[in-house]
Design brief:
Largest sheet: none
Structural class: mainly alpha
Number of strands: 0
Number of domains: 1
Helix content: over 70%
Distance between the termini: 53 Å
Order of helices and strands: HHHHHHHHH
């Protein structure tokens, strides 16, 4: 058990960072909305690590921590008035917009984190562990399955009630154009491509920039302000 506690210590550290953000940010802030969602995911992963539910806890921890570090680096960049990755810029730009609904903030953050950060986190974890992406596929799938199950709950919890059909109808159409499962599949393909390109620095950099921009464009669409 001592070994497992050592492995999960980095997860505890990122959970502590997210809890501090949750306490510091106004509840309606768009980053705060996503942070609460992601905190729930990371706490659940931490619980499953403690319970021994991951066959390879070292790999699961490496992937989870590298994944979280990408989000926290974007938060730190924005707080220091530096430019975060393009995938995160729409969320930081629109975080206080009164016409953007909480569900939009949540899914825009998930889009940035899954569509861009997770692909890079797979590569980061492979370098840390000295393995191939295929060796992390089980952990990738477990994290993805957890996110899919939480996404369903998020949509139910944050969708406006039936008394707000004028908001819910366009919101349904807007958010129906984005799928976490499709994003996850694309992310796995991107991670494998980046790993294959790891010895071609210029091409890998261009691929990463294009991925970042494309995910950012999708995030901007998800954050389209809706009339009251």
């Amino acid at each position: 058990m001592v070994q497992l506690e050592h492995l999960t210590a980095p997860v505890d550290a990122v959970v502590a960072r997210m809890r501090a953000l949750d306490a510091a940010l106004p509840p309606r802030d768009g980053v705060a909305v996503f942070n609460r969602v992601y905190l729930a995911v990371t706490e659940e992963i931490d619980r499953r690590l403690d319970a021994g539910e991951f066959p390879d806890p070292r790999a699961a921890t490496a992937l989870d921590v590298r994944f979280a570090e990408r989000y926290l680096a974007a938060v730190d960049a924005a707080a220091a008035d530096r430019r975060p990755p393009a995938c995160w810029r729409p969320l930081f730009q629109f975080r206080r917009h009164p016409g953007v609904r909480p569900l939009q903030f949540a899914l825009a953050g998930i889009n940035a984190h899954i569509g861009h950060d997770l692909a890079l986190a797979v590569v980061d974890a492979c370098r840390t562990l000295g393995c191939e992406p295929a060796d992390l596929e089980d952990e990738f799938d477990r994290v993805g399955d957890l996110l899919v199950s939480l996404e369903e709950r998020i949509r139910e919890d944050l969708m406006p009630g039936p008394d707000l059909f004028q908001i819910a109808d366009p919101l349904t159409h807007l958010l129906g154009s984005w799928s976490l499962e499709r994003a996850r599949d694309a992310t796995w393909a991107a991670a494998r491509a980046l790993w294959a390109l790891r010895h071609c620095a210029d091409v890998a950099e261009e691929f990463t920039e294009r991925l970042d921009a494309a995910v950012g464009f999708a995030g901007r669409m998800l954050l389209t302000p809706l009339a009251d």
